[in-house]
Amino acid sequence: MKKLGITLLTICLVISVAGAQQRKLLDKIVAVVGNSIILRSDIELDYANYLANNGQPNQEIKCQIAVNLVSQKLLAAQAVIDSIEVKEDEVDNEVDRRWRRMVQQAGGEDKVETFLGRSGVQWKDEIRPDVKELLVAERMRGKITDKINTTPQDVDKFFKGIAKDSIPTINKEVEVGEIEIDPKLNKDEKAYYKEKDQDLLDRVKKGEDFATLATAYSQDPGSAPLGGDIGFTDRNGVVKEYAANAFRLKVGEYSPVFESEAGFHFLQVIDRRGEQVHTRHILIMPKITEESIARAKLRADTVYNVMIHAPKGADVFSSAASAYSDNKDTKYTGGMMLNQDNVQVRTTLIPTDRLDPQVALVIDTMKVGEISKPQLVMDNAGKKTYKIFYLKTVVDAHKANMAQDFPRIREAANQAKIARTMSEWFEKKKKESYIKIDPEYQSCPQLKGWATPVTSTQVNP
After folding, report:
1. Cβ contact 407:347 at 8 Å
2. pLDDT attached to residue 20
3. DSSP 8-state code for residue 286
4. What is the SS3 assignment for 172?
5. Which of 265, 269, 316, 365 has the highest CB neighbour count under 10 A?
6. Can you give the pLDDT at residue 54?
7. Contact 339/354 with Cβ under 8 angstroms?
8. How far, rounded to the nearest angstrom, does the alpha carbon of residue 429 sit from its chain's CA centroid?
9. Per-residue pLDDT at 439 exceeds 80
């Protein structure tokens, strides 16, 4: 597995070299869209990205990439006409996000820069125009489709248009509620970690290099390889305690050690840009003790006993979730878990094969309406917590129908309407725009009909 991870990381780094290196080797114009060009290296780069994300080798994918790039050029060209723009800080943030992901995968900026043979600044300058065009194209696509309204009549028509033998089978689904009780350290248990972070702040103020200390000691996996740098963020991009400190400081100043849900931090403001601030920080995350786990169990047992002794007919689970749960995602939804694979619909129906195995094991023995005893569970990061589960609904596997599956059918109908709208838009733009496709890609079925017909005058000037 380690070798596989290294291989995938190497592929990711290779594709990130992007423009300069591949273009020098593979420069050839494969398509012209108005005043823009698409190079063979652009397609090869996206294909390498596809392979890096576990895609199977398939030359037909290059055809799909080519049509996607042609589409992007058309959208970007229309965006210029419609005066659609993206802010420079939006582009900067997306470029920074990509750079941070590469650095996190590689384990440090120096490793990425050594492999690329260029600095992070140089790489960002090279990729920035492509990122900007992509964001502009996405915004143009949004403008074209933002007024689409899918009515119940549209949904009914869409569903009736599906052949009976093509109606999908919906797997068994459940609605599950949870109340999460997290172990919490007391003041004395936290003191050691606060003092550790304070010691690092003192060392920084005495002249030691912030980035070096952050890389060595910070427990934020996203920023530690970057010397603690989290880039530019607005107030909504960080937890409230972090924002409160970051936005009151001047450039160059340090915050005192403060506590957030993640642990103990201190930060330094590096730069400001409008309503955004560029910071770096060092995070020390307290370790949960056996004593804190025992306290969490006692609290979870108490909540469970309150619920099972409550008057029948009362919505006890929802009330208890709002009052006691430490899970912010479900605390205010009556404790009900959302289907993370279908966030657009925001449904609480979750396929049983998509449940956390620990959750599935518990509810498999429960009856509808039953509340489980507190269960000690562990997340992927090794965090232990107690959870109380409530099995609200079980929907057996069935053929999709309007009565049971209206939200998902409505989403499918809406996506079909968006696809149809975009297809019609592209058909119109193809006739209005000059598009030339190199013979290498003219055989692609996805690009059939995209090229501007060559007239006899153009053939024989």
Report:
1. yes
2. 44
3. P
4. coil
5. 265
6. 63
7. yes
8. 31
9. yes
